[in-house]
TrEMBL record:
The modification 4-aspartylphosphate is found at D55. Residues 3-120 form the Response regulatory domain. It comes from Eisenbergiella tayi. One of its GO terms (biological process) is phosphorelay signal transduction system. GO terms for cellular component: cytoplasm. It comes from the Bacteria. The keyword Membrane does not apply. This is Stage 0 sporulation protein A homolog.
Length: 507
């Protein structure tokens, strides 16, 4: 609804004007009053009325001077003068100040209603025209940032023809919001930040144009805090200075170039574009880094199965630090590989742990979904930590059972000594328990006998050596703990239906 300001030094006339006219019925939501021109000027500055009714003869500041100063500040406000027959000279001055209308005293309520209805019709027409113009201007600015230089030059000419402005007077600074967007900010966002007068939607990026009368960095800091409070994990990057539309293509290019580094931004801390452009992310990891990630994936999985949260998250930090040196696509792929490794080794075949899948989701999303959709690395990291914590909690609960620790010890012993002769008696002696008791605990906890588990572990290692090396079968048998190559070949064929050489040729 519209707002009206009534100005008169005569209290009776002011009260009559305020209380006897049904403003609400005409679409006026708020009525302000003032007793003189100076007071009215202060009220208008803060309340921004759409319509002003003002007397002419008043103390402190008369209506003519008030209207003159108001018009300098607000070209759109509608000003109606209340005047007597002997004040026509003042009325002529008023219309030179672009007064909208005048009403002679004494006036009737119907006179006020007639003038207001005419003004409201005019305001609605102006608003419609403004919306059309703003929509057209926004579309032109969008295209200026998206088109090539030659087309942009023509669009810039069109824009300033619509604005009736001069190019050298139109300056702006820029804030970029990085994230899975293409979506314009919400209406409440623009209410919070009136400094933003245009925005440009690009893929995974919104460019916000700001008035140069404000400190761009301070607005960016407030914006980052607002987005964080509203759980919008977007990177905030600012470009200070006074920029022109002729620089649009260059500005867009610079923000797009910084996109990889922006993925790793702390969403609560904005950064300048010039600083961000100095950060370079590699296109691929070095061989030694890939090997390190492979070892860390195995180590993280082991620490999870041991319920060791401290070592697990220390290894995870090492893993993420390596990933963060690369582009987001490599980072995401490395996270997926870690997730798949843990899932394959610990979760899929463990029915009890697999029941925890719903709790492993972060904000309803799996790690795979987060890696696909996340705006930044912090979202993926939060999801990964939640996933690992659920697995850790499950294994920690098992560790409260002494029998579980026996099972883990046997598995670790086999992993470290499978290439040597192993017997249940040897393992039981290490633990300090009887062999039969160790056999029983392991079978109940693991689901396999120690003999079968050892055999499966050795055969799995043998398959990897057959696949990845050219070593002879006799040598491979020794490397996995079998002195008798014939016995090794017999159990291999029984397990896989092929001799070791046949299995290797079938790859």
């Amino acid at each position: 609804m519209y707002k009206v300001l009534l100005v008169d030094d005569e209290r009776l006339e002011l009260n009559t004007l305020k209380n006897y006219v049904d403003w609400n019925k005409m679409g006026i939501g708020t009525v302000y009053t003032a007793n003189n021109g100076l007071q009215a000027l202060e009220t208008a500055q803060y309340k921004k009325p759409d319509i002003v009714f003002t007397d002419i003869r008043m103390p402190v500041m008369d209506g003519i001077e008030f209207a003159r100063q108001l018009r300098e500040k607000d070209k759109r406000v509608k000003i109606i003068f209340l005047t007597g027959y002997d004040e026509m000279d003042f009325i002529r001055q008023a219309f030179r100040l672009s007064a909208t209308d005048y009403i002679l005293k004494p006036f009737l309520v119907e006179d006020i209603e007639r003038v207001v209805k005419g003004i409201l019709t005019s305001l609605e027409q102006e608003q419609t025209a403004d919306h059309s113009r703003i929509h057209a201007e926004r579309k032109i600015i969008d295209n200026i940032f998206k088109e090539d230089t030659q087309q942009a030059e023509e669009l810039i000419r069109q824009f300033f023809a619509m604005e009736n402005g001069k190019e050298d007077q139109f300056h702006f600074s820029v804030i970029g919001l990085y994230g899975k967007s293409g979506n314009p900010p919400e209406k409440t966002f623009f209410q919070e930040f009136p400094e933003v007068f245009y925005y440009v939607e690009l893929q995974d990026l919104n460019l916000l144009l700001l008035k140069t009368s404000v400190e761009c960095r301070h607005v960016a800091e407030s914006m980052a805090a607002y987005l964080y409070r509203n759980q919008l994990n977007l990177g905030v990057v600012y470009l200070e200075g006074q920029h022109r539309l002729t620089e649009a293509g260059q500005i867009r290019s610079r923000f797009e170039k910084a996109a990889d580094a922006a993925f790793y931004l702390d969403s609560l801390t904005p950064i300048s574009l010039s600083t961000l452009l100095k950060v370079e992310k590699c296109g691929e990891l070095k061989e030694e880094e890939r090997k390190k990630l492979h070892m860390l994936r195995k180590d993280i999985t082991v620490q999870l199965s041991h319920g060791d949260s401290q070592l697990c998250f220390e290894r995870l930090e090492d893993y993420l630090n390596i990933c963060m040196e690369a582009r987001p696509s490599i980072y995401k792929n490395s996270i997926i590989r870690l997730y798949n490794h843990i899932n394959d080794e610990l979760v899929i075949e463990n029915e009890e742990l697999a029941k925890q899948y719903p709790a492993m989701r972060f904000q309803g999303k799996t790690i795979l979904q987060l890696a696909e959709e996340a705006n930044n690395d912090s979202q993926i990291k939060e999801g990964l930590i939640q996933y690992l914590n659920v697995i850790l909690a499950w294994y920690c609960s098992l560790q409260e059972n002494a029998n579980y620790r026996v099972v883990v010890y046997v598995e670790d012993y086999i992993e470290n000594h499978y290439m040597e002769p192993i017997s249940v008696e040897m393992i039981a002696s290490e633990i300090g328990l009887s062999p039969n008791y160790v056999r029983s605990i392991f079978k109940n906890g693991n689901g396999m006998t120690i003999k079968n588990y050892l055999s499966e572990y050795r055969l799995d290692k043998a398959c990897k050596l057959l696949k990845n090396t050219s070593a002879k079968v006799s040598r491979i048998a020794q490397m996995v703990g079998y002195d008798n190559v014939s016995y090794f070949c017999a159990i291999f064929q029984k397990r896989f239906g092929k001799t070791p050489n046949e299995w290797r040729r079938g790859l």
